[in-house]
Amino acid sequence: MRTNTRILESSEPPDSGLIYLSSFAIFFLQIGSTGAWFTIALLLVLIIMSALISGSEVAYFSLTPADLHELASEDTNSSKRILHLKEKPRILLATILICNNFVNIAIVILSYFLTSELLPPDTLLAWGESLQRTLPGTLSIERIATALEFCITVVGATFLLVLFGEVTPKIYASVNNRSMARFMARPLSALTILFGPVSRILVGWSKWFETKLGKDGDQVRNIKDDLDRAIELTVSHEKDSEKEIDILKSIVKFGDVSAKQIMRSRVDVIALSIDSNFSEVLHTVRDSGYSRIPVYEEDFDQINGILYAKDLLVHLQEGENYRWQDLIRTDVKFVPEAKKINELLKEFQQERTHMAIVVDEFGGSAGLVTLEDVMEEVIGDIRDEFDEETEVDFERLDSQNFVFEGKTLLNDMCRVLGIDTSTFDTIKGDADSLAGLLLELLGRIPKRNSEIRIKNYRFKILSVNEKRIEKIQITVSKPVKT
Length: 482
What we know:
The chain has four domains: 2-209, no CATH class; 216-252; 255-379, CBS-domain (Roll); 394-476, Uridine Diphospho-n-acetylenolpyruvylglucosamine Reductase, domain 3 (2-Layer Sandwich), CATH 3.30.465.10. 56% of the residues lie in helices and 13% in strands. It is built from 18 helices and twelve strands. The chain has helices at 2-9, 16-31, 34-61, 65-74, 77-86, 89-118, 121-134, 141-175, 177-194, 196-213, 215-234, 241-252, 259-262, 278-288, 341-351, 371-379, 410-417, 434-442, and strands spanning 264-265, 272-273, 292-297, 299-308, 334-336, 355-359, 365-370, 394-396, 401-405, 451-454, 457-464, 469-476. A hairpin with a 5-residue loop joins strand 6 and strand 7.
């Protein structure tokens, strides 16, 4: 402090450049000490640990079902560890967050000690005095020195953490998620065991908060359940009363159903390529029996318009080279997957159209929905003389066992089994098909003959390939009426 007293009492203040030059000289001399080098080395190690832990969060939670399926087929120790960690995602996330917080706190504390060691109070006061002469105001030298220490320690540590401990590793992990997941599989397995008790407490608290925050949603579900019971009590149990009950229940839930839940998936849509010749068009129209057929260019993601079968009637005698493309109607309606069907019905009525292409979040064509699909959600299947006898592809083995295609929609499956269409709402996530429900729960493609029990239903995988689940046998606890 004597040095600072002389500076303050001096009639001629020293040059600021000399002050900074001497301060940096002292700074680099301090770095040369053994303790400073050790502290810097330890700080670098902690930053690397923070980067690895932050990157592992993105790596593990960006693994797709296809990635998990490939990992399951590898049958290596690292892949087994990854799959084991993914089985309890909440515990994994809690462990990552706990470790990351501990490491980040250690980095801040270590940064403070390193700053205190490399920049002693005399140096900060000298800088403060120099800044006091250039900055307007009446701040004391001590306050400026404190502010400098705060900026260097906290802002500097935050910059290091954000750039090297968060942003950079997360960008790398998003591109190389599988390699990062493999590298961190063993350390995370050990950390999950080490912080297991704390992680379970945090997960328990989060579930409690979710229950409290989701109270309103539970009340809405309870109201709908009460309405269902009221409908069952109110409608007389006479002949065909069950159909009336189903229609009334469907009306209550009509606004909760999205276009994605009732659409025909793109793999099942009959469509025409704009490059097809006239004979191929006629053949497709005759075989399909549909009155409206989408027309695409290159692939189904590029829908050009809709071809109406009635527009072909006056041109049936034309040759193979007839330019049928002039008959395509380009006023195609596109709707997002999340579109509620009550809103879609209003739009169909207002625009006087009967068909819409359902697009996903990336703008690709996910499927097709028609006015008939919307109406069937309320009044049940609408059949005419051209419809096949069985709309839903399934096989009834006996009163308790059924075999369904994996692509069967959950709503259709529930109707066949005679159960409420909301039975699996709490566990299905974003899935709308039977195969999607099982993939949502397992996070991987199951093996053939494997069984999964959900509530009072047992699902057995009868047929599966490397890309999808093909056939599933469902066993119900109570016999289903014919």
